[in-house]
Amino acid sequence: MRHSFLFLLAIIVFSGNILAQGNDIDKSIDSLMRLMTLEEKVGQLHQITSDFAATGPITKDGEKQDRVRQGRVGSYLNVTGADRTRSLQEIAMQSRLKIPLLFAQDVIHGFRTIFPLPLAEAASWDLGAIELSARIAAKEAAAAGIHWTFAPMVDISRDPRWGRVMEGAGEDTYLGSQIARARVKGFQGKAIGDTDAVMACAKHFIAYGAAEGGRDYNTTDMSWRRLYEVYLPPFKAAMEAGVASFMNSFNDINGIPATGNSYLLRKLLKGDWGFPGIVVSDWGSVGEMVNHGYAADLKDAAKKALIAGCDMDMESRAYTAHLEDLAGKGEVSMQMLDDAVRRILKKKFELGLFQDPYRFSNAAREKSIWNEQSHLEAARDIAKKSIVLLKNDAPGKGKNPLLPLSNYANKKIALIGPLVKAIGDNNGFWSYSWPDDSIRVVSLWRGMVEYLGSANQLRYAKGCEITGTDTSGFAYARKMAAQSDIVILSIGESAVMSGEAKSRSNIHLPGMQEQLVKEMVATGKPVVVLISAGRPLVFNWIADNVPAIVYTWWLGTEAGHAICDVLFGKYNPSGKLPMTFPRTEGQIPIYYNHFSTGRPFKNDNDNNYVTAYKDLPNSPKYPFGYGLSFTQFAYGKIRLNADSINPDQQLRVTIPVTNTGSYSGEEVVQLYLQDITASLVRPVRELKAFRKIKLSPGETKEVEFILTANDFSFYQEDLSFKAESGKFNLFIGGSSAATEKATFFLR
Ligand code: GLC
Q1: What is the distance between the alpha carbons of residues 333 and 307, in angstroms, rounded to a whole number?
Q2: pLDDT per residue over 102-112, tens digit each?
Q3: Residue 6: its pLDDT value, please?
Q4: Whose alpha carbon is nearest atom 10 of ligand 1?
Q5: For 129-173, how does the pLDDT look when each residue is reduced to its tens digit (9 = 90+)?
Q6: Pair 551, 563: CB distance under 8 Å
Q7: Which of 102, 150, 280, 502 for mutating ligand 1's site (highest number of atoms within 8 Å of CB)?
Q8: Given 106, 159, 216, 282, which residue is catalytic?
Q9: What is the pTM of this model?
Q10: Sheet of 278-280: strands edge to edge?
Q11: What DSSP line would sit under 670-719, residue for residue?
Q12: pLDDT the model gives residue 18
């Protein structure tokens, strides 16, 4: 009797404190942890998936809800909806200490409203739009009872064979860091605990995108210096933006699986960086250390993961099966186990779940924003900004570029290709399908019909499938083209050809699609090619023989509307590639910020005793940062406030940019730096700043950048971060091939 009275008293005491913040939360956690059994503590470190959906290999293990009732589950993933989360939380409230569950979900690029793939959003270089995209995703997810999203994925990758490039921000560390910051701010809003915000999760820590061969889950191995210089900064940016959690990656890095890597998790992240949040494993990655050959069995894996600093075990069941025994025998310290529990409880307190476990499971709020028009408008806005115009020449012997289609608005348009009427594919990988997708997700076909007012001008032929060798549809496609004044092809990958476990050794256009394009070009009609994909693809013949090419990625719910906004000139495309596009797989890895080497090539065709291939030009098909506009931009001379500065001084850089064309448009002005001679070889150029500006025809703007010693610094052999005196080159332009150059000295 006395015992239960004390429990009741303790619960009343600390739940009364929950409204408090800061170290009052710590006191409440202390009170609660004093009441918790070892089994209940281990339960907090256990995350399982619901049976509604799985994003990895499922292990069945009896009645999950009983575990919740016994206080042996800390978090669920793949449970969404105010009702479902409420009903599961009600079961958690039947447990002895009524510790609420955390509900987690992969809300990567939208929830009810699907936004462009993260790689597509990166092509917008519009940090405000990217933050808004995450903000809206958080509002919709939080309204559906979700507390925690496993996003942003901030893995840098230089290998388009890796299917998960679709989920990140591309190859560049600086752009990736800016976008990581924007996404964390978007997801977490003003404060964790607001019911329109979710906890974010920087993933996958670390170097998952450097998998050898671009093969998912494969080994990564590199110098710590490269790790610090290329792969860590976006994670540091996420942490500085206040990200609530990290997810360790599947891969082994320098011989130790990230899940059990004490240097990364405990020394660097929790020690040097002082990260206060949760480290969650990736799906089953604790147990997979046995496959890695790093743990002898599941018990050994549990021990190594906890000691390394992995707080929560997603789905491997290693922790729930073995941590009590390991702690009981002193093989893992209670201090480490308690630290993991504390980190998790702290987030539950910050979310206000002890005060009201159901505060995110609000059916009325969920319903109220379910079809919010402003969310669709935001999705359309960033979708059109994500589109990259790769080529826009005059067709045949004409003088005027083929796009925008203003001259064809009253003519017959043939829409040809397997993606013209694609609906669900537009959402891309890591998205959600809803019962009303068929009427809500805007296909290219529907966008065209709505834009033109009817289908009267349109002719349609699928032509072929995305994959396979069947060309029986070509004849009808030729017939439709013959009846039309212009042909627009919509081709590419299917949405599930990029994403997790979707690495491809061949990233050429799949199937007979290139042949279909050749058939259409052979008709003599002007041809526009739209390419949808979650990664850079190889399409050299099209690039060399088709006058207009538009990269449309997968743009989400508003895809068709955004594409038509661009095709018909309602929006002048401003996207810039966040990844280098190779001429062929054999060029990979190919990225713009490479080292010079001792035998750099002098031009595209120089391959005589220089670092080059004998069988193709040296440049990529399209460089990082590249993208055209319907207008043209001219760059004037770079002006510097000094041609030499001390390390404690700022370098002010200005350049005039003029719109010399006839359309208003946006330009991403990119600034690249080259440290010409240093104690370590340095990239031939590195993105250090960018500004997206809007210019009317004939307008000139002076674009100013301020550089500081931080911009000139790099990681030394001993991993210290500092600048070295010497000569630097600056390049400014509309892509990484920028030619406007200035030189200065750092004293
Ligand atoms: C997956 C992914 C990870 C995701 C997790 C939960 O395997 O690697 O990014 O957040 O499992 O779905």
Answers
A1: 8
A2: 999 999 999 99
A3: 52
A4: 150
A5: 999 999 999 999 999 999 999 999 999 999 999 999 999 999 999
A6: no
A7: 150
A8: 282
A9: 0.96
A10: 201-205, 245-248, 278-280
A11: EEEEEE-S-SS--BS-EEEEEEEEEE-TT-EEEEEEEE-HHHH-EE-TTS
A12: 42
d(CA 483, CA 411) in angstroms, rounded, equals: 10
Rounded distance from Cα 283 to ligand 1 centre (Å):
6
Phi-psi region at 443: left, alpha or beta (left = phi > 0; alpha = psi -120 to 50): beta
Quick check: helix, strand or coil at residue 439?
Answer: helix
Cα gap 140→133, rounded to integer Å: 11
Q: With a 6 A CB cut-off, is 675 part of the ligand 1 pocket?
A: no
Tokens of 432: 């959600």
Q: What is the pLDDT of residues 520-545, one digit of tens each?
A: 999 999 999 999 999 999 999 999 99
Residue of 675, 672, 637 whose CA lies nearest to 654: 637
Per-residue pLDDT of 463-490, as tens digits, reads 999 999 999 999 999 999 999 999 999 9
Q: Is the CB of 246 under 6 A from ligand 1?
A: no
Ligand 1 lined by 106 (C-beta under 6 Å): yes
pLDDT in tens, 268-296: 999 999 999 999 999 999 999 999 999 99
Residue among 28, 3, 2, 193 at smallest CA distance from 96: 3
Q: Is the CB of 283 under 6 A from ligand 1?
A: yes
Write the CB contacts of 485 (distance below 8 Å, at least 6 apart in sequence): 408, 411, 412, 413, 525, 526
Cα separation, 451 vs 406, in Å, equals: 12
Give yes or no for residue 55 CB within 6 A of ligand 1.
yes
Q: Based on the residue annotation, tell me whether 338 is a catalytic residue of this protein.
A: no
User: Tokens in use for 522?
Assistant: 């052979």
Using an 8 Å Cβ cutoff, are 132 and 124 in contact?
no
What residue owns the CA closest to ligand 1's atom 8? 282
Name, in order, each residue with C-beta under 8 angstroms of 584's C-beta and a sequence gap of 6 or more. 538, 540, 616
Q: Is 78 in the pocket of ligand 1 (CB under 6 A)?
A: no
Q: Quick check: 315 and 59 in contact, CB under 8 A?
A: yes
Residue 283 alpha carbon, nearest atom of ligand 1: 11
CB of 282 closer than 6 A to ligand 1?
A: yes
Distance 281 CA to ligand 1 centre (A): 9
Cα 114 to chain centroid distance, Å, stands at 14
In terms of Cα–Cα distance, which of 255, 305, 235, 245 is closest to 280?
245
111 lines ligand 1 (CB under 6 A): no
Q: How far is the CA of 105 from the centre of ligand 1 (A)?
A: 9
Among protein residues, the one with the nearest Cα to ligand 1's atom 12 is: 55
Taking the C-alpha atoms of residue 155 and residue 236, their distance in angstroms, rounded to an integer, is 12
Ligand 1 centroid distance, CA of 728 (Å): 42
